Amino acid sequence: MTKVLMVLSSAAATLTGKEAGWYLPEAAQPYYSFIHAGFHVDFASPEGRDPPVSQKSVEHYKDDESVKFLQDQDVVDKLEKCKKISEVNSSEYDAIFYVGGYGPVVDLADDLQNADLVSAFWQGGKIVSAVCHGPAGLIHGKDSNGKSIFEGKKVTCLSNAEEKEHGFPLKDIGFYLEDKIEELGGKFEKAKGLLECHVVVDGQLYTGQNPASAKPLADRIVQDLKQQ
C-alpha cells in the first residue's frame, strides 16, 4: 500500500504570540485525496500528539472536507497518536507532505530533526511536497551533495504579495518564505492573481502556493504515485 506522511506544525503561536498552528483545509483536503486513492496516511509533528490547528482556519473554512476532518474518528485518533518527527522512518513512506499555516515558519523551519527527515526523503528519491507556508519545513533539506533541495528548482509558496495582503507582519514570523526560497537558489513561481490556485512540479519537488492549491497539489501527487 502506498503510504504518505503528512507533517503538521506544533507551534501554537507566532513570534509575537499571535495564533499560529496548522491550516485546516491544507490538511483536510489533501488527506481525503490520499485516502480516497486508497493510500495510508500518518501524521507527524515536532512535538507529536495533538498538534494545534489554526482556529481562524476552522472558522473560515466550512467546506465538506474541512468540517468532516475534525469530526472523523480516524483523523482524531491519528492526531492523538501523531508521531514525533524524531520517531519517523522515511523508508516506510512513499511521499511526504507539509501542511501550511503560520506554524511551520515558527518551528519546522529550524527543526534539525525535520531537516534530517526532509533530506532522507529527498535523497531516497521520494516525492517531497508542501503547500502555502509548508515549504518552510523544507528550507534545510539537502541533497546528497549537501546542496539545498530548492537550488535550481521551480517552486512556489505563499507569495510576498499574499503575505502583505492577508498575512502577518514580518515581525510575527521572522521571514517571508518567497524571499527565503530565492535566497536558497529556488526559481520562485506564482499565480497571476492573489490566492489563485498554482501548483508547481519540478522533479520530485511538488509545491502549492496557497489554500486553493492544496487539493490540486494532492491530486497531482496521487496521479504520479499511481503511475510509479
Automatic annotation (TrEMBL):
<keyword id="KW-0346">Stress response</keyword>
<dbReference type="InterPro" id="IPR050325">
    <property type="entry name" value="Prot/Nucl_acid_deglycase"/>
</dbReference>
<dbReference type="GO" id="GO:0019172">
    <property type="term" value="F:glyoxalase III activity"/>
</dbReference>
<dbReference type="InterPro" id="IPR002818">
    <property type="entry name" value="DJ-1/PfpI"/>
</dbReference>
<dbReference type="GO" id="GO:0005737">
    <property type="term" value="C:cytoplasm"/>
</dbReference>
<comment type="similarity">
    <text>Belongs to the peptidase C56 family. HSP31-like subfamily.</text>
</comment>
<dbReference type="Pfam" id="PF01965">
    <property type="entry name" value="DJ-1_PfpI"/>
</dbReference>
<keyword id="KW-0315">Glutamine amidotransferase</keyword>
<keyword id="KW-0456">Lyase</keyword>
<protein>
    <recommendedName>
        <fullName>D-lactate dehydratase</fullName>
        <ecNumber>4.2.1.130</ecNumber>
    </recommendedName>
</protein>
<feature type="domain" description="DJ-1/PfpI">
    <location>
        <begin position="26"/>
        <end position="222"/>
    </location>
</feature>
<dbReference type="InterPro" id="IPR029062">
    <property type="entry name" value="Class_I_gatase-like"/>
</dbReference>
<dbReference type="GO" id="GO:0019243">
    <property type="term" value="P:methylglyoxal catabolic process to D-lactate via S-lactoyl-glutathione"/>
</dbReference>
